[in-house]
């Protein structure tokens, strides 16, 4: 999900994006959510709205999709 997020915001793995600045956690109901560290969050909120993540997996494969809403 970290890589999908980094590509959705157009950075790839360039600053201010690093592997440690985004976490994928579960909301109380089990829905995956992205948690953005303060060092990246300031950059993010200037450019984007909500981020949505979907994760699926099988025994030998996993995939994540991230949709990021642009600010109007």
Q: Quick check: average pLDDT?
A: 94
The CATH architecture name reads Alpha-Beta Complex
Beta-strand residue fraction: 35-45%
What is the CATH topology assignment?
Ribosomal Protein L22, Chain A
Q: Please identify which CATH superfamily we are dealing with.
A: 4'-phosphopantetheinyl transferase domain
Number of domains: 1
Low-confidence parts, pLDDT < 50 over ≥5 residues?
Answer: none
Helix content: 10-25%
GO molecular function, one term: magnesium ion binding
InterPro entries: 4-PPantetheinyl_Trfase_dom_sf
Protein name: Holo-ACP synthase
In short:
24% of the residues lie in helices and 40% in strands.
Primary descriptors:
72 residues, alpha+beta, Ribosomal Protein L22, Chain A, two-stranded antiparallel sheet, 2 helices, 4 strands, magnesium ion binding, 4-PPantetheinyl_Trfase_dom_sf
Topology of helices and strands:
Layout: H1 2-8, E1 22-26, E2 32-36, H2 38-47, E3 48-57, E4 62-70
Antiparallel strand pairs: 1-2, 3-4
GO molecular function: holo-[acyl-carrier-protein] synthase activity; magnesium ion binding
InterPro entries: 4-PPantetheinyl_Trfase_dom_sf (IPR037143)
Organism: Escherichia coli
């Amino acid at each position: 999900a970290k890589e999908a997020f980094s590509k959705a915001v157009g950075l790839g793995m360039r600053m201010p994006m690093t592997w440690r600045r985004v976490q994928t956690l579960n909301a109380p109901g089990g829905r995956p959510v992205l948690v953005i560290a303060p060092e990246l969050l300031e950059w993010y909120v200037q450019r984007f709205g909500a981020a949505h993540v979907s994760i699926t997996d099988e025994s030998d494969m996993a995939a994540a999709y991230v949709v990021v809403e642009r600010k109007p």
